[in-house]
Amino acid sequence: MTPQTEPMTAALSHATEVARQRVVEACDHFHRITLDYAAALLRETLPDAAAITIDSDDGELYEVRDADGKALYRAPFTPASPLTDQLADDVSDLFRQVLPLGGLAEAGWETAAEGEPYRSILLPTGTPRSTSTTPAAPAQTSGTPGEDAGTCAQCDRKLIWDNTGKGVNDEWGEYICYGPRRAGKAVHVLAK
Fold this sequence. Notes:
three-stranded antiparallel sheet; 2 domains; alpha+beta
């Protein structure tokens, strides 16, 4: 290996790791927001819904339970349940989008009492954990890549312009703001 390729290899190694971490974070976020969405949909007709079980082979919603473990809905048919087949299918479709990403155990799903392939999880309570879908527009629209862009309005970290010159990240290359989010955004926001 020549001295000229070592920095490139190191940079590519770092870029690969940063990209991998972002994918993991995005998958975690997708799991959480999908569960939040499913909980909101289910509670429109089953306000006492506290836990669900899905068939992890095909994503089908198998069961919805209340906090005491009483079944409010069970596939394929529950005559006394107000949950319509269409709504059950809509919730199942959400999980069919998540399943190919894997990571169910890491997201909190446990093997159900029925055994594999059934997985259960408690539904989140309270306000959804995240509803941000788009980054906030920065106060300044562009800058020179690698140069100082100011500070984050949410966490007060020093920000630099990313390699496109159109976005900002912190000195570690992270776009996601992990500090207290005063403005409520998931990404760094330039102070005005």
